[in-house]
Amino acid sequence: MTEPPLTEEFRRTDSIGVLVGALSDLRKGIVPAIAVMIGLATRENVPGFAIPLLIVAIFVLPPFTAWLKWYFRRYRTGAEDIRVESGVLSRQARSVPYERIQDVSLSETLLSRLFGLVEVRFETGAGGKDDLTLAFLTKEEGARLRDLVRARRDEAPSAETIAEVEAEAEAVPIFAMDLKRVLLSGVFSFSLVIFAVLFALVDQLDFLLPISIWDRDFWETLFSEQGERIRTLGRIGQIGSAIIAVLTVIVVGIVSGVVKTLLRDYGFRLDRTDKGFRRRRGLFTRTDVVMPRHRVQAVATDTGVIRRLLGWHALSFISLASDGGKASHDVAPFARWDEIAAIAREAGIPLPGDVEWHRTSRAYWIDRALLSLPLAIAAIAVAIWLQRWTPVAIPAILFLILAFSALTGYLRHRHALDPDRVHARAGLLSPRTITAPRVRLQSAQIVQGPIARLRGYATLHFGLAGGVLLFRGLPVAEARALREAVLQSIDAVDYSALPR
Amino acid sequence: MNEQNEDLTLLDPRHITVLRIEALLGMVPILIGAVVVELVVGLPTGLIIVPALLVTALFTFPLPRRRYRRKGYSTTMDRLRYVKGWFRRSDTVVPFGRVQHIDVKEGLVERWFGLATLVVHTAGTHNASVSVPGLSRETAIDVREAIAARIRRDTM
Q1: Which CATH class is domain B72-155?
Q2: Cross-strand bridge partners of residue B105
Q3: What is the third-level CATH fold of A359-497?
Q4: Which of A46, A232, B77, B82 has the most crowded CB, counting CB atoms within 10 A?
């Protein structure tokens, strides 16, 4: 295709597609229809209009709506974008610029295949759910659109490197965990999930047991018998058995944490390949994930209080792809700071180094603490009114916790701005950080509620693909300045020009 | 607050009427519910209907105008900015360079008045789509063309 395609006329999708759409609707409707038929047959004095109505609902409506949808759905390939108009009563016109289309996929269903039709999906970066689809087109038309889009995209200078050939030779991994480290990291993933599992198991299998765990009498006898025994032990015996009980729980928690981590992280290794980062891990089910470097939207670090004291940190990548249900990919679950810093540098997103951390507005945290006050007072008032003294303690303690967490929020939350990156940090003893390149941010929103306006702070929320980057309680002027700075970086680089 | 908002353009005034009609349509089920409850329970006439009517009147007459006055957009500096809300004020900016694709939607009521809603989609998880309602159809299409042109220009 040498010359750019001119804007063509609007056209409809293939008319046989109506048939495919109607048939697949019919297929979905047939089972409920049979169910309703049977239901009607078993009843007496069914009104005479029910059967014709049913027939209309099942055999006439779907084809008719399929036809309507088809009739009002038009598409056109223009000089710059693909346009699709749809909707019978409310109209929707969608425009997808060629530059934003990452790929065009053609898919067939069993029915469409019979008629030689395909569904064409234009994938953009918008995360899949809002992709543009055209159902159904002839195979030739689908192929034409795909070629057209690919041709248009290739005209634009692309930063793509054609390095499909992967070096098969195993290089030195950029990060790996030996058995010792996996076991050590397991110690820190204390987990009591085993108790939940045991309990669920007992619940499932209780018909096999001589006791019923839901039986109140069983527990009462158990406790009174055991209570008698414990009472006879004397003070030291009581304390001793309490300590043993606590220790048992701790040991079980640690052991199950170690086992869980061993199963998941055994033989953990992260390689830098041409395509991106390749991670392999697992004892019985070994997973092998490749994470393209350009897909990494931000990096996040995490640690724990004791882990931090001993110098251990975790690093994960935030991207649109999900990692077994989690949005971010663990790339170094248990590592030294310089190890994770090296990986982050390799991803092109260096961790915050010697940056100037800013704090949020004090007023925001004070207001948050104050907001929980009326609730606490109400709860305490009710308790006093009812003359129940023990329950007073619960709301009072809850309030104290809320107020404490709100007041320390000022100490916990920090942010910093580098010429090319934004950093957010939360936590005092075990800080979590998120570092996002400014150009990877998609939008910026400042939100202020009534109290925030009065007190001069705002929430700044950046659009990050696959993650959350928001700053609560920034002084208004700072929120505006931060947004402006980031927007200026964004303006400099178009989305399509981002390395991919 | 207002010193920052001078460059904002108000939406099309017909948007007020659209908001009114939509509010009225939204209140219809509640009004019907109020009437039914009164008839069924046998309460004195007007005990529920009158408050329901008052709420409807509030949502239909003063509020849409106020909501309209709080909304504004701008497309300067190749950024789409949309401000709305009185109680919870939000100020969203999407740089044209981050727009994935663009919808121009015409809801049934909007269509009667020649209005449209512009929806821009971004790759971000937050603000995956930002809608600017109450633009005249021509304005919506102009903005769409401007964004599309900018995307094209950037990648030339």
Answers
A1: mainly beta
A2: A92, B117
A3: PH-domain like (2.30.29)
A4: B82
